Amino acid sequence: MKRRTFLQRFGSILAALGVAEAEWFQFGTRYRQALAQPSSRKLALLVGINQYSESPALNGCLVDVELQKEVLIHRCGFQPSDILSLTDEQASREFIEAAFLEHLIGQAKPGDLVVFHFSGYGSRVRVGNTPEATQNALVPADGIEESPQNPKIVNYLLEETLLLMLRSLPTDRVTAVLDTSYYAPTSILTAPLRVRARQTPPAAVLTGAELDFQKQLQEKASPEQPGVILSATSTPNQVAREIQYSGFSAGLFTYTLTQYLWETTPTITIPVLISRVESAMQQLGSTQQPGLLIGKKNQQRVQLNENFVLETTGAEGVVTATEEDGKTVQVWLAGIPPHVLEHYGVNSRLNVVNQAGATTQLIVRSRSGLTAKTQILSTENKTSPQIGQLVQEAVRVLPRNINLIIALDGELERIERVDATSAFATVAHVTSVVAGEQPADYVFGKRPDTKNKDLIASTSLIISPSRYGLFSSSSERVPNTFGEAGEAVKVAVQRLSPKLKTLLAAKLWRLTDNEGSSRLNVKATLEIISGIAPRAIMHRETLRTANPETINKKSANPEPGHTPTISIGSRVQYRVQNIGNNPIYCMLVGLNSAKNAIALYPWQKVTETEDPQEPQLIDITIAPGETLTLPQTTSGFEWVIQGPPSFSETQLIFSTAPFTQTLNALASAKHPRADQQRILPILNPLEVAHALLQDLHNASTTAADPNTVPADSYVLDVNHWASLGFLFQVV
Predict the structure, then answer these.
(1) What are the extents of the domains in the chain?
(2) Which among 72, 556, 611 is positioned nearest to 269, based on CA atoms?
(3) Is the pTM of this model over 0.70?
(4) What is the three-class DSSP state of 707?
(5) 404: enclosing H helix or E strand
(6) Count of Cβ atoms closer than 10 Å to residue 627 Cβ
(7) Residue 294 to residues 156, 224, 302: CA-CA distances in angstroms?
(8) Does the 317-399 domain belong in CATH 1.20.1740.10?
(9) Residue 530 has pLDDT above 90, yes or no
């Protein structure tokens, strides 16, 4: 493309975007002045497309752009004027490519930091005369508009073209985030998560203009790929999904990525980042595996700070507006884990980060989606919070009446949905909703039983040749939840009732996650016991108290894009360390790969009792500076990982006060007693989960005025608890 032709086209693009050319070149003057400065610049192009003329609308792509923009500005130090966003109809193929050429390639210099983000549909398109000559492509807003003259031409942006544009940048500090996928599933369970992949008609071919543009790029692009490309999926058969919460939807990958960027430290490596993001996605019910599409040489050693320069301290959000009364402050809370944000209650408290050391505390009065309206509770100075100031969690308030939300799959017949709604209404602490209309924890659905195709209904109840059970929000079967073919819907729900209690218990203790915000200084490592020395598999520590220079050195680095794996039969243990100045107490709960609740039962013989032979459940106490292994057992009684192959998760929870009620709840189940610590099933998981939250509540409110503590909520203070989540795959 000739420069004159390009400038004419770019002028029309600016007009369509509502930007005058004079205004743009004023921007350019400021850019050139900035380039004269010795410090490097930071440029970003963010693309998000919800509205497509020929495909179902996506819901979360514009939110993705906001998520990325806010973290780039407030955590990574980007100037708002250096971030260009193209959304919906603005994001045509020509607009995206022109903006990339002018905003990124035309301005970047060696050493500058560049970020490109795309959220929208992806697809596969034929680029040659044979059906096999297909390539990955991003679908722009105008990519699937078929003209009457030639309905087989599509206007896609090839992934190969994007790679060439990235290679045309004069800097190697480049990050591309692609929250899309290319292979559309042939069938999918109705679920809260939309899929970002569409099927292109086999006869369709790519527009010649894209191939011409690609040919011009090939003549000038560098042969080496700079920086890193973070992809929402790591294998062709995976799909990028959206996640739905109250008030908003977002790309699952973008949300978990940006949420972790808000809280993490700059010295972690890119592979650790990918692994942590995948763990967060798995905890939200997805098997989607993000990965490095292309990375630098020695990518295992590439630190996050080389591509996302984290200039500010970790935080849960940022002040985005203040109202005229001087007391009401609006905050963006994208740094809070998504499953926690969904239940983040009124009266939660946030501290405004002030470099001068003065403390201003905000109290949450309402929340809509990612934005909360707060009021100034107290301040040590007379200045009000300013837009752009970061906020950190101080007190988390969670409602006591949290239910498990079950979506009814759209594939169920009407009478099946009626029966399921009626049956779930009789199960305590469970609410049923229509799949896709409201956020849900799991989906109740059916799958055909190929062994019983000829089974026929024989009673007035709903009898189906399919098997009823639970799916995750991304359509994965939940282990041990499917019954026999021919089972009635109401019978299936009754059968699932104990499992629903277990899944609700896990939901409750996951809400204690606060690795990013806790003020307790603790570390924990999951180890496999083998040979002479244990082998570290995963490492977690409270980030707000961690030493940034050492956190990555102690991290186990799994392969990028994959959750750590542990073989069935392996012996494992946790190594926990109290770095603080006061003793802390520890509790371990979790779900094994069969999705059954487990806990560490700290049995111990107490010689002071009347019957010294009768073991008791005794709090695990970790003294300041002390390191313990859990469970503490003798040879032959170690924690051995059992099947089936699936995902397993544990939550290590620490408190400044004893877990009195939790131990009482565990003891009330009348488990056979042992003379040492053991990992055993929890027979009453929901009671244990509520007792655990009550213990954390008690630890946090010992010094509070009882009249100020809401009776319908759990109140958790970050100075009094820490909760570290571990998720691994049993193979």
Answers:
(1) 3-306, 317-399, 404-509, 511-730
(2) 556
(3) yes
(4) helix
(5) strand 404-408
(6) 13
(7) 21, 10, 13
(8) no
(9) no
